[in-house]
Amino acid sequence: MSFQAASRGAPLRPPPVRRFVLMGLQQFREYVQRGGGVTVPVVLPMLPSQILFNNLLYDSSQLPTDNVDPEQLARPSRWDVGFIRRFMLFFGTVSPVSDFVAFEVILWVFHADAPLFRSGWFVESLATQALVILAIRTRRIPFFRSHPSVPLLIAALGAITVGTLLPPAPPRRPLHHRRQPSS
After folding, report:
1. pTM of this prediction?
2. Residues contacting residue 177 through CB under 8 Å, at least 6 positions apart
3. What domain range includes position 45?
4. Handedness of CA 40, 41, 43, 48 (dihedral sign)
5. Low-confidence residues of the chain, pLDDT below 50?
6. Most CB contacts within 10 A, which of 23, 42, 161, 166?
7. Which residues of 93-108 are buried (b: 16+ CB within 10 A; e: fewer)?
8. Is residue 161 part of a domain?
């Protein structure tokens, strides 16, 4: 049930806390990613203005309008510390590996200098953050067996679109973005 349904008179139930815990654990990926990016000798990590704008776009895409799966509302659930540990170990390992593969593509395929690398990292980071949230919002198969609310989906895709269109756009200069090769 969404918050819109609750406003139409349906009983309001809080969304499962599990989703917010997993969203918080996703930040672990960001720490590993930024720490690993520092080790790449040719580039600098994203600039503070880029990190702040990335976080602003991402945070503004997280609307409290999501649909909650009925089985998650049927009865209270217990904390599964083992699941959280497995999620953190798996996601905390797989996600940074995919980020480092993206780093390699940006560096060796696009032959990126520091400004281009930062711009590519900005777009990749924002897109993966938004898409991961859409995936971990349910225990079902995302998009096939459980659908996010339309406002949440539009907001997430809108944040990705703004982040992708920003490097070739005129406002890129204050954020120190550089036009992507495909632009």
Report:
1. 0.70
2. 50, 115, 118, 119, 122, 166, 167
3. 20-72+94-172
4. positive
5. 1-3, 5-7, 11-14, 183
6. 166
7. eebbeebbebbeebbe
8. yes
Residue with token string 């990126």: 112
> Number of folded domains in the chain?
1
Amino acid code (one letter) for 37: G
pLDDT per residue as tens digits for the range 4-53: 544 455 544 445 566 666 666 666 666 666 666 566 555 567 888 888 88
Q: Quote the tokens at residue 156.
A: 């997430």
Structure tokens at 32: 């590993």
Q: What is the mean pLDDT of the chain?
A: 76
Look at residue 1 and tell me if it is in a domain. no
